[in-house]
Known about the structure:
nine-stranded mixed sheet; seven-stranded mixed sheet
Amino acid sequence: MIKKKIVAMILAGGQGSRLGALTLNVAKPAVSFGAKYKIIDFALSNCANSGINTVGLLTQYQPLDLNTYVGNGQPWDLDVIDGGVYILPPYMSAEKGEWYKGTANAIYQNINFISRFDPEYVLILSGDHIYKMDYSAMLEKHIANDADCSIATITVPLEEASRFGILTANKEGRIIEFNEKPKVPKSNQASMGIYIFKWDVLKKELIEDELNPSSTNDFGKDIIPNMLKKDLRLFIYNFKGYWKDVGTISSLWEANMDLLDPNCELDILDPSWPIMARNTASRPHYISPLAKVNDSIVTEGCEIEGMVNHSVLFHNVKIGKNTIISDSIIMNNVEIGDNVYIHNAIIGDDSKIKNNVTINKENVVTPQYVNKKICTNDLSLVGCNITIGENVNIGKLSMIVNDIKEEK
Length: 408
């Protein structure tokens, strides 16, 4: 193998249970986003745009769709001879085999993979965040600081800081303290879960962590605090721009709605930093003379005969006559019939909503056969590959995980 200056490792094996029905059969990074993307597209595109062409993708939970989607990395220009995207699931070795126990253990289990490229630096990423970031600029700062580890941070309101891992740094940006979700935050610099390490330092720390029976094998809980105790050189890299962890139904809905804001910092149409995807649609979209579409994102293959307002429509969505869709996310290959009303909802891939269905209509009582209070914002969620029969009325805060028969 050719020696690499830097190798990226994307942690993409999480179950994403807080996304409910959307992750019953797929890993969180494979969840659809922004009309034509998957969540994983952002980390892969950032790597490609930053000039990093050797990427390990660590998978575990429900990996089939994610593995198939990423393939050899060609849509992100990562199918290069001396690098590329490598799918890295847990595996059985001569000594033992086990699931990834934590973020640090996942990298530990792939020490041999990283060592094949003999890199100077290793970039650790999460595969479930929405943002655009130049990792090469972070690497330059890391080298200039002669840092053993650099941690990307984002400034958050102090009243929200207790939700994050909070870093305290001196005037030079050197980290002097780290607290995971502190009750009384000492700063508002929140870790983004993006790290650059010197590879020789990281390798030593991973081996030591694995030998510690009391460790949780996590970067935030174990590796970073232990490095600080040893007085190693850790620095913050303060990121300025849009970033969102879409780990909940509410945050996923909010991030999609953010795309409709003309002042949003996340410009997915910027040709200088393209977000690339494996485009599975080939048909043009069609909007009938009776249809009305306002303040929405509509991608290829959609057929619209009703009204769509402030919503995001993915590939091959069909919307029938006299149907009203507002403030909602309609994912790939969804078929919605006539006289349907959908507001403040997420409809998962490949679902069918039959005629005369209402979702989140005012004063509709949530039926007994659905889960309640799954998220904030009065949202409701229909999972993937679900059929809602005719005349069904679904109230707020509902999660639909099974087919619902027609109401008489």
